[in-house]
Design brief:
The chain folds into two domains: about 200 residues, 2-enoyl-CoA Hydratase, Chain A, domain 1, CATH 3.90.226.10; about 45 residues. By secondary structure, it is α/β, with parallel strands linked by helices. It has a six-stranded mixed sheet with strand order 1-2-3-4-6-9, sandwiched between helices. Strands 5-7-8 form a three-stranded mixed sheet. About 35% of the residues are buried. The chain has eleven helices and nine strands. Strand 1 and strand 2 form a beta hairpin.
């Protein structure tokens, strides 16, 4: 494994894949190439039938401090810097964020320490967010002379409403995990020592669920803000028609009759 590949680690345990941003020396800031590699990993996991849940986290004591913009203050920014690449660089970030959003499998952000800028929005792009009690969140862009990115302009208003979203973005304050939970940004806050066990439990539980049904439920929820009630009801009907034809529905019924846990196979 070369140095670049080691900056992104993928581990599989059962049906759960854990993707770890591995640049702890810079709080797991993601380079331009890092976004490309992360998208490639997400695409690979999307089509891996052995994976039913994906955990996204950071190495060391932090989640992700955002995009690596360390070279922006230097003269002669090259093609590898965000400023040098301009729109192309941001398109790479966008493609990665969209790949996470469209991942048909449940995703969980395991957040410890700093989650800032695009790093915060990477966490918000996951389906579930579990934070340690020492986690800190910030839409820090304005402090860097930047506008919001990483999907935050789409995610934040849907999660906490427009005015709260503007508060986080315009003031660029750092908020605690507890405050994030009160605002509805994270699902759970747990003690740092309990973080791994809690995330493992949730990941195992969603991985044991019916893959086809969960995938369609996720898509229905993601689409709900941009369409009418009538369209949502129609889409629900189509999804259930697919579910009724699966072996998993039969297995669920048999498990209920036999008073046991269902074993879903995704077919």
């Amino acid at each position: 494994m070369d140095e670049n590949e080691s900056e992104l680690l993928v581990a599989r345990e059962g049906a759960v894949a854990t993707v770890t941003l591995n640049r702890p020396q810079v709080k797991n800031a993601v380079t331009a190439d890092g976004w490309v590699r992360l998208k490639a990993v997400l695409d690979e996991l999307k089509y891996d039938d052995s994976v039913r849940a994906v955990v996204v986290t950071g190495a060391g004591d932090d989640f992700c401090s955002g995009a690596d913009v360390g070279g922006l203050g230097q003269s002669g920014d090259g093609a590898d810097s965000p400023r040098g690449n301009g729109l192309l660089s941001m398109q790479r970030v966008g493609e990665c964020v969209l790949a996470l959003h469209e991942m048909p499998k449940p995703t969980i952000a395991r957040v410890d320490g700093v989650a800032a800028g695009a790093g915060m929005n990477l966490a918000l792009g996951c389906d579930l967010i579990v934070a340690s009690d020492r986690a800190r969140f910030s839409e820090i862009f304005a402090r860097r002379g930047l506008s919001i990115d990483g999907g935050g302009s789409w995610l934040l208003p849907r999660l906490i409403g427009l005015h709260k979203a503007k508060e986080l973005v315009l003031l660029a304050e750092v908020i605690s995990a507890e405050t994030a939970a009160e605002m509805g940004l994270v699902n759970r806050v747990v003690a740092a020592a309990e973080l791994d066990g809690f995330v493992q439990d949730w990941a195992s539980r969603v991985a044991a669920g019916p893959p086809i049904a969960l995938s369609m439920s996720k898509a229905l929820l993601n689409n709900s803000m941009s369409q009418s009630m009538a369209q949502s009801l129609f889409d629900e009907g189509r999804a259930q028609t697919v579910n009724f034809a699966t072996e998993d529905v039969v297995e669920a019924a048999m498990a209920w009759i036999e008073k046991r846990d269902a074993t879903f196979r995704g077919r």
